[in-house]
Amino acid sequence: METDNTNWSGPSTKRVRTSDKEREHVAEILRAAMAEGRLDLAEGEERLAKVYAAKYRDELAPLTADLPFGGLRALADTPDHRLATRRALRRHAWAVISVGMILTGFWILSGAHFFWPAIPLIFLVIGFMKHARYRHYRYEYSLGHGVAPWNGPGWGGPQQFHSGHRGC
């Protein structure tokens, strides 16, 4: 079955339609903000109605703009997010353990006296510890809203790391 696109000249605006997944994500943020007491029931329900009626992405942003971090902190404390974080950390831990076992097997087969797998294992464990510590920033990055802790408020600007050199 063919469609006749002879009269279609493309979209007249640059607005992007929103998906059900994006609507549900914003609705989760609003529900978390209501549970925290940041929004009362009437205002929360009003915003939820606007979320589900939204057709374009730019209609969703103002609904969470007045919430701290766009409501992402509240969403990071939801049971679903905690479960997903635990799963990701478990996968990361198993990857570190598996690589460690493989490297130890190679070390045993090589017959070397120095335990050289310790060097890559140190970096793998450091990466796992950073993942465990900054796991909630991963969620904010995935949405394009988050900032790393060293780029967030309170960390000073470039002047904090000024070396005293008068050049740049």
The H/E string reads HHHHHHH
- Biggest beta sheet attributes: none
Q: How many domain units?
A: 2
Count of helices? 7
Strands, total number: 0
Which descriptor suits the 3D outline?
elongated
Radius of gyration computed on alpha carbons: 24 Å
Distance, first to last CA: 64 Å
Task: Report the helical percentage.
Answer: 55-70%
Descriptors for this entry?
0% strand, 168 residues, 2 domains, mainly alpha, disordered C terminus
Compact summary:
This protein is mostly helical and 168 residues long. The protein contains 7 helices and no strands. It is elongated.
Structural write-up:
Helix content is 57%, strand content 0%. By secondary structure, it is mostly helical. The protein folds into 2 domains: 20-76, no CATH class; 79-148. The longest helix has 32 residues, at 79-110. The radius of gyration is 24 Å and the shape is elongated. Residues 142-146 and 157-168 have low confidence and may be disordered. Residues 1-12 have a biased composition (Polar residues). Pfam families: DUF1707.
Strands, helices and their partners?
Layout: H1 20-36, H2 41-53, H3 61-64, H4 72-76, H5 79-110, H6 118-133, H7 135-143
Helix pairs in contact: 1-2, 5-6
